Amino acid sequence: MKQIIFAVLFLVSIVAPAEERDLTGKVAFVRLTTVRESTPGAGSEQLVRDVLLRLTQMGSANSFLALSDQTGSVVVPLEAGTWCVQPYSINGQPVKLSLHTMQTSHRCFTAVPGTMTEFGVTLSFDVRLSGRIPGLGG
Description:
Strand content: 35-45%
Structural class: alpha+beta
Distance between the termini: 58 Å
Helix content: 10-25%
Mean pLDDT: 83
Order of helices and strands: HEEEEEEEE
Low-confidence stretches: 1-16
Number of helices: 1
């Protein structure tokens, strides 16, 4: 009897982690684009590179970081759900958002499995980013 219980527990311990790793039908994608709003009366927004972005899933402790590239964009695979974005400079200082983007409805998006969501993060026109990405080896 002890051998049967041990065998069942062993099989459950093997199967359970495998189920947790299966992301079939759960993965969504988001293309985040970071821009700086134009100065009043100056025209269009400017793409901003090297913005550290913290994505936090609403109703969960899930959170991770992404970094916008030289085009101001990053594609992130994530689990479906509602996610909110907060920008930071490379050295981790919070970055001021545009007045429009400060509203929760403009900082959060819903990621739907099997789709790509386009989402813009607009920084205030007076933001000056600091910090540098370290090179390899320090």
